[in-house]
Structure to design on (97 residues):
């Protein structure tokens, strides 16, 4: 993705030079906005969409893994609690007998 930013910087330079050669300040500003800011922001947004999708998928997978680990921990705790309660019940039964 770094090449994308290099191209963008070069394009900004070219359009800035175009804007500086315009006859008036308003024409220069309109040239810069029309040829640089608007199209470049659209192109960068479109071309970086795959990176955004990868980031979203990675975050989703990480959240899924965390949820899976938490549920495993909870089930382990429940089974340990169950074993403890079963052992205390058997001890109580032995004491009563």
């Amino acid at each position: 993705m770094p090449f994308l930013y290099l191209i963008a910087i070069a394009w900004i330079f070219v359009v800035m030079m175009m804007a500086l050669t315009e006859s008036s300040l308003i024409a220069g500003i309109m040239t810069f906005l029309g040829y640089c800011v608007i199209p470049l922001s659209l192109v960068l947004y479109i071309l970086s969409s795959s990176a955004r999708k990868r980031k979203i998928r990675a975050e989703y997978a990480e959240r899924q893994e965390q949820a899976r680990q938490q549920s495993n921990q909870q089930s382990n705790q429940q089974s340990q609690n169950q074993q403890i309660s079963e052992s205390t019940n058997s001890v109580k039964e032995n004491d009563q007998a």
The radius of gyration is 32 Å. The chain has three helices and no strands. Residues 1-47 form one domain. The chain has a mean pLDDT of 86.
